[in-house]
Amino acid sequence: MLSLAEGVLHPGCSAYLIDMVTALPFIIIGLAKDEQRSTSNSYPSKFAMAPFSPSQRLDITFHDAATLGARLKIIGKSTTHSGSSLIVRCEIWDTGEERLVASAMHCKVMPSKKPPSATLIKL
User: Using one digit for the tens of pLDDT, what is the confidence trace for 65-111?
Assistant: First the structure.
């Protein structure tokens, strides 16, 4: 997805790629934690549910433009995964030009559990 005016990677596409890549470390953490559980029918860990959890913050800094035909390398590193916050740092690199295209910090939060006495409200 290119920005038609300039022929470079559209910032919205960069944000989408970052959002997808930052979910991967938490899927892996979730699978590892679920594998360590002893019961087979237990609820998945909160980390396994991270791709479906809401984003609290997505800070993206655009450093340079990626042009048509550029080979991109996207790196996501888990920095914090405790409590109810999950934070991943992500970088998009143009490997041909050896330059940083964008960097980001993505914070996801785990939704609270539904209270036992929750009722539906009709609008």
Answer: 898 889 999 999 888 777 677 888 999 999 998 999 999 999 887 76
Q: What DSSP designation does 115 have?
A: P
Q: Which helix (H) or strand (E) holds 20?
A: helix 11-36
Whole-model pTM? 0.73
pLDDT tens, 28-46?
776 776 665 545 555 555 5
Rounded CA separation 97/122 (Å): 56
> Residue 64: what residue type?
D
Strand partners, 67: 8
Is the Cβ–Cβ distance between 19 and 106 less than 8 Å? yes
Buried b (16+ CB within 10 A) or exposed e, 69-102: ebeeebebebeebeeeebbbbbbbbbeeeeeebb
How far CA 96 is from CA of 9, 38, 92, 110, in Å, comes to 15, 47, 12, 38
Which run of H or of E encompasses 35? helix 11-36
**CB count in 10 Å sphere of residue 103:** 17
